[in-house]
Amino acid sequence: MSARRFLSIGECMVELSQAGDGLLRKGFAGDTFNTAWYARACLAADWSVDYFTALGDDAMSDEMVAFIDKSGIGTSLIRRIRGRTPGLYMINLKDGERSFSYWRDNSAARSLAADPDRVREAVESADVVYFSGITLAILPREDAATLLAEIRRAKAAGKLVVFDPNIRPRLWASYDVMHTTISEGARSSVLVMPSFDDEAAHFGDDSIDATIHRYKALGAVNIVVKNGADGVRLNFAGEETFVPAEKVKKVVDTTSAGDSFNGAFLSRYLETGDAPAAARFAAGVAARVVSEHGALVVKEKLGLSGGR
Ligand code: ADP
């Protein structure tokens, strides 16, 4: 069977989390990278998973590339920019509540689409293209337009283009730019995978139907609306299905619940074309992810052995 390529586009950051006694633990994470991680864990070996981003030429960028590579994710498309560094965030814990501090304003990833030829080469090399509202939010406006133009070409060429709006108002210059650009991302895609709480909070949707209707009107063909412990609603070529979440004994950390759901869903959907079955599989993977600490849960803990 010929190799097929899943390409995820966005920013992976250095993550610092509390390790007790004032010590910090270093990791690497970011929404589109997390989805690539779970796609890699769940996809068959005849798929390659590649990450498209930009990094610097410092030791931390080298370490991140080595980590991505060790995760089985291709790094050959990653752009390295002299004098730049990766973005960084810290997870703070106070009285059991998590909060996040970010240092990403000048991260190398903001330049990931600055070279149109490289964007074209990467998108053309892929069978499936995955990106998010965060990918679009971190780019200068003209680079977001470059990326979206290539993504529209991929859609027109019949590729599966997948978009998670992942709405983060703090990353956008204004609500107006955010609404316009996220809508453009959805319009350029085949499959849109929003989280209902974000859509309700930032687009004012009063129901899941409203979210589905809005993205359909923009031209998305298929939609998966995630709704936390309340499961997901699928609308595939107009056909609606509800898939419940799996019961979790103890929710430990919901970081990356949506990202892992997307990666697991896509892996199954790409192999079988059966969206409801893919959503049931993804609900199982996401349930395991929220039962463990951290964004990236290793394959051995995802209960995949019986699933294939
Ligand atoms: P996001 O992280 O993007 O906000 P959601 O919170 O909707 O995404 O979660 C994505 C998926 O993760 C859900 O569809 C569900 O399968 C799973 N999930 C999230 N929270 C829970 C939970 N408390 N119990 C069981 N599954 C959950």
> Which class of secondary structure composition applies to the elements?
alpha/beta
The percentage of residues in β strands lies in 15-25%
What is the overall silhouette?
Answer: globular
Low-confidence stretches: none
Rounded to the nearest angstrom, the radius of gyration is 18 Å
Structure description:
- The protein has 308 residues and is an alpha/beta fold.
- Helix content is 38%, strand content 22%.
- It contains 10 helices and 14 strands.
- The chain has helices at residues 31-42, 59-70, 116-124, 133-137, 141-156, 175-187, 196-203, 208-218, 257-272, 275-290, and strands at residues 4-9, 13-18, 24-29, 47-52, 54-55, 79-80, 88-94, 97-103, 128-132, 160-164, 191-192, 222-226, 232-236, 239-243.
- The strands form 3 sheets. It has an 8-stranded mixed β-sheet with strand order 4-1-9-10-11-12-13-14, sandwiched between helices. Strands 3-2-7-8 form a 4-stranded mixed β-sheet.
- The longest helix is centred in the middle third of the chain and has 16 residues, at 141-156.
- The chain is globular, with a radius of gyration of 18 Å.
- The mean pLDDT is 95.
- Residues 195, 226-229, 232, 245-246, 248, 251, 254, 257-258, 261, 283, 286-287, 290 line the site of adenosine-5'-diphosphate.
- Adenosine-5'-diphosphate (ADP) is lined by residues 195, 226-229, 232, 245-246, 248, 251, 254, 257-258, 261, 283, 286-287, 290.
